[in-house]
Amino acid sequence: MCGRYYADDTMVGEIEKVVHGIEQEIWTGRSGDIFPSCQAMVIFKSDSGITVGEMNWGFLQYRKPGLFINARAETAMERKMFRESVLHRRCIIPAKHFYEWDADKNKVTFFREDQPLLYMAGFYQCFAGENRFIILTTQANESVSPVHHRMPLILEESELEEWVYDDSFTEFALRKTPPALKRRQEYEQLRLFF
């Protein structure tokens, strides 16, 4: 599961390598943790090509208060609420890192050591005139599973345009295993007795 991640304005330079001609002001001066319902930077397809804009995180629930913030990659195409968005409104959520909490409620940070950004696969939908996104999650790989059984579906930089444009790539991407991530933990409980 992904319930919080970090973004800052230094990411714009990296994103511009993939999305040409974006406005530097899109995220200038904004840095910090992104929580569900927050506005965030999202890469998506527009009439003029691949672009970057802001969307709110989370789909509104119809029958009760709250948000859907994640969808399982394994079943998203089967769920009526998600299927059309996965088929036609795929997006990418860039982040420096994301967080999970271990069994002792300690915050653990996951990031890529080989690249400056994580590109999380997602999709969006319009609710009352406002585009809102969801992050796809998948079975955690070996680097994340000691902390949590789910993780965001991470795309390689070379897969970004395919994710947004290529419908035939979608099925493959939904089944892929994300790359290994590094983790950092500010505090870890040490055992005194074995």
Please render the helix and strand layout as text:
Blueprint: E1 5-7, H1 11-15, E2 32-34, E3 39-46, E4 49-57, E5 59-60, E6 67-68, E7 70-72, H2 80-88, E8 90-95, E9 97-101, E10 107-111, E11 118-127, E12 130-139, E13 150-152, E14 154-155, H3 160-165, H4 167-175, E15 182-185
Parallel strand pairs: 4-12, 7-12
Antiparallel strand pairs: 1-2, 1-9, 3-4, 3-8, 5-6, 8-11, 9-10, 10-15, 11-12, 11-14, 12-13
Structure commentary:
It is a single chain. The protein has 194 residues and is mostly beta strands. The protein has helices spanning 11-15, 80-88, 160-165, 167-175; strands spanning 5-7, 32-34, 39-46, 49-57, 59-60, 67-68, 70-72, 90-95, 97-101, 107-111, 118-127, 130-139, 150-152, 154-155, 182-185. Strand 3 (39-46) and strand 4 form a beta hairpin. It has a domain at 5-93 and 121-137 and 151-178: SOS response associated peptidase-like (hypothetical protein yedk fold, Alpha-Beta Complex). It has 4 helices and 15 strands. A 5-stranded antiparallel beta sheet has the order 2-1-9-10-15, with no helix packed on it. A 5-stranded mixed barrel has the order 3-4-12-11-8. The model has no long low-confidence stretch (mean pLDDT 90). 15% of the residues lie in helices and 39% in strands.
Provide keyphrases for this structure.
194 residues; 4 helices; mainly beta; five-stranded antiparallel beta sheet; hypothetical protein yedk fold; 39% strand; five-stranded mixed β-barrel; 15% helix
How would you summarize this macromolecular structure in one to three sentences?
15% of the residues lie in helices and 39% in strands.
